[in-house]
Write a structure and sequence with these properties.
Elements (H helix, E strand, L loop, with lengths): L3 H4 L1 H30 L7 E3 L12 E3 L29 E5 L4 E5 L5 E3 L2 H6 L28 E7 L4 E6 L4 E5 H5 L4 H8 L20 H5 L4 H10 L1 E3 L7 H11 L11 E4 L14 E4 L11 E10 L6 E5 H11 L1 H9 L1 E4 L15 E2 L1 E3 L6 E4 L6 E5 L2 H19 L4 E4 L7 E4 L3 E5 L5 E9 L1 H12 L2 H9 L2
Antiparallel strand pairs: 1-2, 3-4, 4-5, 6-7, 7-8, 9-20, 10-22, 11-21, 12-20, 12-22, 13-19, 13-21, 14-15, 14-18, 16-17
Keywords: Carnitine biosynthesis, Dioxygenase, Iron, Metal-binding, Oxidoreductase
GO molecular function: iron ion binding; trimethyllysine dioxygenase activity
Pfam families: GBBH-like_N, TauD
């Protein structure tokens, strides 16, 4: 006779297995509910059935919505919209000394913030700590971590708006009050980046494109040119002599001309003198230049010197920032794909040249906070590998295809005919440029300037020395 205990073993195992499964399901439901409470984007994905149960079993888990609310990790202009200079006086904060710390208070708020004493000492503006000409540090306050600077006493002169600080090592510092209160100012970051209000545009800009006459530049007045470049992304300079020499001199007045494997300032003809499609008469799709560099060129000049025995060759401008903004509004999940997964590009047609960026860079490049679009990098001809995992590859191609569709919209395209004597300058981090096919012989001169040099020219011609000092030296 078989023992009863052995006969019951399969039944016990089945009951145990079912109990484990029930606990697993209950744990999964509990976990999903917890996730829903913590992250609203999951709130409509899984929900228990609200219909009354006719059995003693737990309510069924029903898949309600396959379209979860999208978490917008990247934004194009959330910060840029209000983050513009010049600096304004800060009348919202006050400083006081509580016997141990300098305290920053905001009027109408109960929140007080102690000013970092490390930061304060590191930014001492005296002639011992800082070179008064170069604004560079002359003392390394980072040495001696065990002897962190401490304030022995401080005097806040509200009338003079200065703070006198005596340190525990006997050193004395005098700070302008606004130097401290502006530390949190969004305008400070705007001046540092050379930000301006953005004007996104489409085909209608043909009615009144930005321009500054060459005579203004001859008089040394580059401020308006640089401001229009930052606002619109491009500017024409009518009245320029149609010579390489005059064009090069104007470009050098903005900043050092960048040397590449094409040379520095160059004259382009349609005879494939360099192995690049720009040196042919073929049509060029809208693109940004130098995507194969880790640091793509910032400003570019192109000046048509002559076009003989032929026709065609209309130029095309597209505001890449506007198309990015359209992508963000129409398909935020695709925007994030182009902002997340980098791509490589290459320049390999010339002997001895194999150029690629040191890392894959996204088409839509943002600041570290992901709140401001800094650069659009788009060149289908030079595109190489896509640095996306295989299970995300189709998502990237969907996003790239959608972005291409936005570039192809007629309302986003500004077509015009270049003329000798009117060079065009444009922001290669923002604008895409192209060209229609042409016949005959064209000579075009041009060159690149690094982005930092280009923005530096804008800042030094549009901001006061005091604002530049505040944005450059404060940390």
């Amino acid at each position: 006779m078989i023992p009863t205990k052995i006969l019951r073993a399969p039944l016990l195992r089945n009951q145990l297995r079912q109990a484990v499964q029930r606990r697993s399901i209950q744990a999964s439901v509990k976990k999903e509910r917890a996730v829903a409470r913590e992250d609203p984007s999951f709130s409509d994905l899984y929900q228990p059935s609200t219909s009354p149960s006719t059995s003693s079993r737990s309510p069924a888990v029903t898949l309600r919505d396959l379209r979860p609310q999208y978490n917008r990790t990247y934004t194009p202009f959330e910060k840029r919209a209000t983050n513009v200079g010049p600096l304004r006086s800060d009348n919202d904060h006050a400083l006081s000394w509580d016997g141990s710390n300098l305290v920053l208070s905001k009027f109408g708020s109960d929140t007080n913030t102690a000013v970092s004493q490390w930061w304060l000492r590191d930014h001492c503006p005296c002639s011992i700590c800082m070179n008064q000409v170069t604004r560079q540090r002359q003392v390394n306050h980072l040495k001696g971590l065990s002897n962190a600077p401490r304030i022995r006493n401080a005097n806040v002169d509200a009338a003079a708006k200065v703070i006198e600080v005596e340190w525990n090592d006997g050193h004395r510092s005098i700070y302008d009050q606004k130097f401290i209160t502006r530390k949190q100012s969004p305008e400070l970051e705007a001046v540092r980046r050379g930000n301006t209000p953005l004007k996104l545009w489409g085909a209608s800009i043909a009615q009144s494109p930005p321009e500054v006459h060459y005579s203004e530049l001859q008089a040394g007045r580059y401020g308006e040119l640089m401001e229009k470049m930052r606002i619109h992304g491009f500017c024409f300079v009518p009245g320029t002599p149609a010579t390489p020499e005059a064009s090069e001199a104007m470009l050098k007045d903005i900043g050092p001309i960048r040397e590449t494997h094409f040379g520095g300032f160059h004259v382009v003809t349609s005879d494939l003198m360099s192995k690049d499609t720009a040196y042919t008469s073929e049509a060029l799709e809208p693109h940004t230049d130098t995507t194969y560099f880790s640091d793509g060129a910032g400003l570019q000049m192109l000046h048509l010197l002559s076009h003989e025995h032929g026709r065609g060759g209309e130029s095309l401008f597209i505001d890449g920032f506007k198309c990015a903004n359209q992508l963000y509004e129409e398909a935020p999940e695709l925007y994030q794909a182009l902002a997340t997964y980098g791509i490589y590009a290459h320049a390999t047609g010339n002997e001895g040249v194999n150029m690629q960026p040191c890392d894959a860079v996204p088409v839509l490049r943002h600041d570290h906070l992901k709140t401001e679009l800094l650069q659009v990098r788009w060149n289908n001809a030079d595109r190489a590998g896509v640095a996306a995992p295989m299970d995300k590859m189709d998502l990237w191609y969907d996003a790239a295809s959608k972005f291409q569709e936005l570039l192809d919209r007629k309302e986003n395209q500004y077509w015009f005919q270049l003329k000798p004597g009117t060079p065009m300058l444009f922001d290669n981090w923002r604008l895409l440029h192209g060209r229609s096919e042409f016949t005959g012989l064209r000579r075009v001169c041009g060159g690149y300037i690094n982005h930092d040099d280009y923005v530096s020219k804008y800042k030094t011609t549009n901001y006061s020395e005091a604002d530049l000092f505040a944005a450059t030296v404060s940390g």
